[in-house]
Amino acid sequence: MPSTQSYLIAAKGIFVGSDFFNLEQAFPGLDLRSDPMVKAGLCAQIIALQKSNFKPDEKTATIGLTTKGCLSHLQKVVEAAAKNRSRTGFFVRSGPQTLASYSAMAHHSHGPTFSLMAENMLLANLFALVDTLLYQKWAATIHLTFSDYDQKTGFKAGSLFLQRAIKNQGWSLPTVLKLATIEEKFLHFIDLIGEESHDDDALVSSGRK
Amino acid sequence: MPKVYKKLSQEVYFAFADAVTCLGSGKELRQAIYKDKIGLMRANALFSNAPHIGEGLIGGLLQVNPNKSRVEQIFDLLIGEENQKLLKLCDQVALASALGDLDSPHPGRFDISLTKKLENQNLCPVFQLSNACSSGTDALALAYGMIREGYADAIGVIAIDCLDLTKLIQHIDLGTQSREHAKPFSIDRSGTSFGEGGGFVILANEKKLKQTQLTPLARVAGAGMSCDAQDLILPDTSGYFPSLAIAMALENSGLKPEEIDYINAHGSGTLANDQAEAKAFTRIFGDHLKNMGISGTKGAIGHLLGATGLVEAIILAWAIFDQKAPGTAGFTSKDPSLNLNIIEKSKAMRIKNGLSVTLGFGGVNSCLALSHI
Predict the structure, then answer these.
(1) Is A92 in CB contact (< 8 Å) with chain B?
(2) How far is CA B181 from CA B42, B50, B55, in A?
(3) Annotated catalytic residue: which of B22, B162, B303, B367?
(4) Structure pTM?
(5) Do A113 and B142 count as a contact with CB atoms less than 8 A apart?
(6) Nearest CA in chain A to B3
(7) Confidence check on the interface: ipTM exceeds 0.85, yes or no
């Protein structure tokens, strides 16, 4: 039987471009040797948190979403390996999980932390995971960050902090975002929240089996 | 109006499991594990064109087709005709890997080739998770949660990872790859032995079990995940943050620490990992540690990178079903600073509840709790 879950959007932000903010100032002490894709994600988080009074707590769950992963660091590792050389500094920061791990380090979040490869992933499936984490009470806040390199614009990244909500209002997620690519749909999704609500208390709901 | 949420609280079972490693697959692997066999080979036997990598021991599978990526070859070994039929019983499939094949035309993009293989079988992955060494455990944990939430009756979880030359070069230089075999929790440990392989698990609720008539190996009691959020490489050697994942698994399983009989540890064979795990276990289990058995299997099959958590969870499920704990292949003599009751050789033992623990790069920690049915 279908039913729905609702979310409170605690904070949201979109970053597009290659002109990164001063991450050292925003996240003092954070190791800044990450792939640029991760840095773009951190910039989206700065925007999200600047626009709201929200502060993630230490039990926040962090989910990274990327289609292409750490292209820049991986390229350096693969090119060096072709010459039988190692680039360990880049290698340990070349996994998609670094998007989630760096985000967790930036916000001192110790909840479930993982990254998803977003190729062919439906947004409805992503929100099924969010439902699972929130409603199985594995976390009270979910921090989603999408980031990828885009040839036209530089980087595209979005950051969204979600919490469980009881109030029912808003629209059905799978209907709005059916079968789009994750990159378009995630950023479009954040845009839609802005258009729909114009504040940080927007509520959305998703379908579940 | 949306309906009010109602907790479904479905039980979730380990309905089927298979794995492929350097010790073989299926029954062959299960028997070899209980015989404490070591399946590792010299690195230059797998990468004969790279003599500079030395003679470290790794759990490699021989590459049979140079036109296919290594993850695709492992997928083909794992998902043969019989397992394809079982895969089709699942409502959804979850894929997991850490980096996939770095020597392929699409380095790091395990999702492209494996998704295509699933699509050929009319299956679309529900998610493709990449979370370093915890990838497989996390995929299982999330699939378990999704079945409990009512999103599916059965989810097939596949975790595959390969040891390509690019990765091996990095790990040798990092000092994580040993020149010998991994010796988890031993005083003379010298690092881990990387390997490659994959696991395939069907998690199902009772309804699906009845439909498929599969005999479950164990019940999934709970799962937990946490993040150190401190360092990308070194685990939290105080054990505090890894202990949060264990505590979460116990909490959502309703099990008390003293009800755990056995732990299949991450046991990578590095000093930092052994210290982090031992401290985490001490924080959670205290005096009960002397009553429970702990073993690690990386000395036998190698550290399977993103597949390691899933394959070790399979070994735990077999152990619970067979009531037999695997030994710690490669173990030499106990590190006296670790207050752990290490199972050196496989032995029959009562295992009502067991844990599988995984720690990964990025400070990610995962724990799965399984119970005897």
Answers:
(1) yes
(2) 10, 20, 11
(3) B303
(4) 0.93
(5) no
(6) A3
(7) yes
